[in-house]
Design brief:
- By secondary structure, the protein is an all-alpha fold.
- The two termini are 22 Å apart.
């Protein structure tokens, strides 16, 4: 019964290690001060990353389904480690492009495969009803790792140099690679001798086409993903413009992760409080969008911090819980990783299209950027088609 129980805590540890991105708290200074890039170039790099994620998501999801999820997540961690080393050699835009490609390849190998591995491990132990709780806790370990990295990043930048915040990120990635190889792969029904890559790919895509409620959840995940993503890129320049020293960025980033941990773990209580999952799905992006518009015109440090901690924490919580609801709509374990990778691919594609334009807009006017994103969020929230019955426990 508990043959696969150790997989869960090992995946917690894996997610902790692979979330130790020491450069995250200083990502804007890393690119602008050390890398000598403007926001158009910075977000072009993020678009480049998203394009490669888009290209690689389904092939790597197929690898996970065909060869095994544990090998997919292990290889992903290793490749990201190599990407971090490449990225930190010297400030060169073209080298950054190669580093982003490797990072995208590694991320694609892990994306979807980790959730599918956890869910199938729970299913083997007949504990799939715990998936929302387990996936939330899995994400909490990622946030704890990111929190630790944020607190350590200032020390690394001060004593070694800002580029070493990227270089030292390779160390926990390689440790995660080792941990992944100790996992026990859940046995699922895939006939390797007859089930070819293209057939697996088509099965995953066909599954999405045949499930309309899943598409509604995907659209919601795209919108909340965009709202969350640009909070990350907006808050550091907002703080710099408000006169906050970069010396405090690690602490603020750590508190940001604390807010994410807090909101992820009280999400079920918030559902009980409002007595409607659908209503909470509406309230969160609505509130985040209003924050975007408010922060465009009122730049007090306290409002910026509320924007980061409250809007960012709630957006992250909804984005995380959406993954659990999507899993409940995917009944076939043999294609779970491919389907989830396809979902992630759609999210990445939306960011790939938007990011270059957002970068140019940020170089022109941060105010107009914030207002535009806020209005985008309001419009899509109002027209969301997610219903109460789509949110299956």
């Amino acid at each position: 019964m508990n043959e696969y129980k150790s997989n869960i805590w090992k995946m917690y540890f894996f997610n902790f290690l692979t979330s130790l991105s020491f450069f995250g708290a200083l990502i804007v200074p890393f690119f602008t001060t050390w890398g000598h890039l403007n926001f158009t170039q910075i977000l072009f790099l993020q678009s480049w990353f998203s394009i490669w994620i888009f290209i690689l998501e389904v092939p790597t999801g197929t690898i996970a389904d065909y060869f095994g999820r544990k090998y997919s997540v292990a290889l992903g961690a290793f490749v990201v480690g190599i990407g971090a080393i490449i990225y930190s050699i010297t400030p060169n835009f073209y080298l950054f492009l190669f580093g982003e490609f490797l990072w995208a390849l590694g991320a694609a190998l892990m994306s979807g495969a980790d959730d599918a591995f956890i869910y199938d491990s729970l299913k083997k132990n007949k504990e799939e009803k715990k998936s929302k709780k387990i996936i939330s806790r899995y994400e909490t370990f990622a946030l704890i790792g990111a929190l630790v990295a944020a607190l350590v990043s200032g020390f690394i930048a001060t004593f070694f140099g800002i580029q070493y915040t990227m270089m030292f990120t390779a160390i926990p990635m390689f440790l995660g690679f080792i941990v992944a190889f100790t996992l026990k792969e859940p046995k699922i029904k895939i006939k390797k001798e007859s089930k070819r890559y293209w057939k697996i790919f088509k099965t995953g895509v066909k599954y999405l086409y045949g499930h309309k409620p899943l598409w509604f959840l995907i659209l919601d995940s795209v919108v909340i993903g965009i709202l969350f993503y640009y909070i990350i890129w907006a808050y550091q320049p907002l703080l710099q413009n408000a006169g906050v020293s970069v010396a405090f960025f690690g602490i603020i980033q750590a508190l940001f992760f604390c807010s994410e941990i807090f909101f992820v773990n009280i999400y079920s209580k918030l559902e009980a409080l409002v007595k409607s999952k659908r209503l909470l799905f509406f309230i969160i992006p609505l509130l985040v969008s209003v924050f975007y518009i408010a922060i465009a015109f009122f730049r007090s440090v306290w409002l910026i911090l509320l924007f980061v901690f409250v809007a960012g924490g709630l957006a992250y919580a909804k984005r995380t819980i959406l993954r659990s609801y999507m899993n409940k709509h995917i009944k076939d374990s043999s294609t779970r990783a491919t389907v989830l990778s396809s979902v992630s691919m759609i999210n990445r594609f939306s960011l790939a299209i938007l990011s270059p334009f957002v970068g140019m807009l940020m170089d022109w006017s941060l105010t107009y950027t914030l207002v535009s994103i806020g209005i985008f969020g309001l419009v899509f929230t109002i027209f969301s088609k997610v219903k109460e019955e789509h949110l299956i426990d």
